[in-house]
Amino acid sequence: MSKQTNILLIYTGGTIGMIKDYKSGVLKAFNFKKLLKNIPELTQLDCHIDTISFDKPIDSSNMNTSHWVLIATIIEEHYESHDGFVVLHGSDTMSYSASALSFMLENLTKPVIFTGSQLPIGDLRTDAKENLITSIQIAALKHKSKAVVQEVGLYFEYKLYRANRTTKINAEHFEAFDSLNFPPLIESGVHLNVNNEYLMRSKRTKKFRVHKKMDTNVAILKLFPGINETIVNAFLEETSLKALVIETYGSGNAPTSSWLVKALKSALKRGVHIVSVTQCSGGSVIMGQYATSQQLKKLKLINGKDITTEAAITKLMYLLGSSVSSQSFKTIFETSLRGEMQ
């Protein structure tokens, strides 16, 4: 007889953890210790559910690296005793947090599923129950006693995505997230349809490791018509800056102004790592495809390829925190570590 699957539910904050007092109309925090009482449907899942909540649940707008470390530490402390993890998180910064955890959790062989909702769990038309129930079901999925999902995922509105491939695209629709450069890992309908060919498989010979040092001396610069030298220099001349994500046009294009090239060259000389990503929702940076990206190619900017901005910024924090040498930084960034780029 196989042992029961143990799932740990980690509540960090966010809309999904709120319930409405119908007499006053006020939203209040949901008591996850009474989870089964409030959502009896969970008893139909063949798993045991434990819950841990942040002492002070936070709005995801206040999420920072210390909270990522806390989530990673909780997973580390319960890694041997539990078979899967579901992280409840506000949707606004979920893609950032989920991307960060994908880098922080190395050699993962168990599912870590981020989810949330657009409406509170006690609302009449809520999407919270479906997101929560299916996320737990996915976290408990096994095939021949091994976890089906062995990576960090993000589940929302009938689809499980690779977490570091996601972006929040809508603040009002239930389909709040998308993964424009990578297909869904699992699609939920009458049945759970698992797209096995897209799932990551960890090398079981390597030990699970948790990285807790994230360097936040990073920034994001979005190009726009009319961007001026003063603004760019204010970014690039900041002495604490170690790495920059520059959101270029289309497939990696940028103005050919001599002052911009000069500013980028100066920052690179000082040791600042600069990653070019596309500001388009989907697609990839292709250095040198157009004349307007030739200069960036000559400068040897890091090619972000089809990585999202969320994954790029958190990958930089992770690599800087891991003290990767300057000589190998570009090569390592341009290599897919957790399936975040092609």
CATH architecture type of the largest domain: 3-Layer(aba) Sandwich
* Percentage of residues in helical conformation: 25-40%
The CATH class label of the largest domain is Alpha Beta
Q: What pattern of helices and strands is seen along the backbone?
A: EEEHEHEHEEHEEEEEEEEEEHEHEHEHH
Looking at CATH, the homologous superfamily of the largest domain is: L-asparaginase, N-terminal domain
Give the helix/strand class.
alpha/beta
Q: In DSSP terms, counting alpha (H) and pi (I) runs of 4 or more, how many helices? A: 9
Inertia-based shape = globular
Tell me the total number of β-strands. Answer: 20
Number of domains: 2
Low-confidence parts: none
Could you give the order of strands across the largest sheet? 4-1-5-7-10-11-14-15
Largest sheet: 8 strands, mixed
The share of residues in extended strands comes to: 15-25%
What is the fold named in CATH at topology level of the largest domain?
A: Rossmann fold
What's the end-to-end separation, in Å? 41 Å
Radius of gyration: 21 Å
Mean pLDDT equals 93
